[in-house]
Design brief:
The N and C termini lie far apart (43 Å). The protein has four helices and no strands. The chain has a domain of 43 residues. It has 89 residues and is mostly helical.
């Protein structure tokens, strides 16, 4: 059994509304790259230590950097939290 992390279809469906539109050249597989970014962050690894199953470490870093600079990940977290916040008494 693999210890790698993979986003499910349901998780991807919840995240897709936050993805920026692709302009020109299509992005590489979003599931693979986002799963790799999550794996790296959860395990405290360096980008170059990413398992090969997630693709080139440079691709993971570039997506993380580009989307972080644009606030995409912050929008994802805020959007997901807003939809599932704790009920108030």
């Amino acid at each position: 059994m693999s210890d790698l992390f993979w986003l499910t279809d349901a998780q991807m469906a919840r995240l897709e509304p936050f993805f920026p539109k692709s302009h020109g050249k299509p992005r590489v597989d979003d599931r693979r790259v986002l799963s790799g970014i999550i794996f790296i962050n959860r395990n405290g690894l360096r980008w170059r230590d990413a398992p090969a199953a997630y693709g080139p470490h440079k691709t993971l870093y570039n997506r993380w950097k580009r989307w972080s600079d644009k606030g995409i990940f912050a929008q994802m977290m805020a959007g997901l939290a807003a939809g599932h916040g704790e009920g108030r008494p």
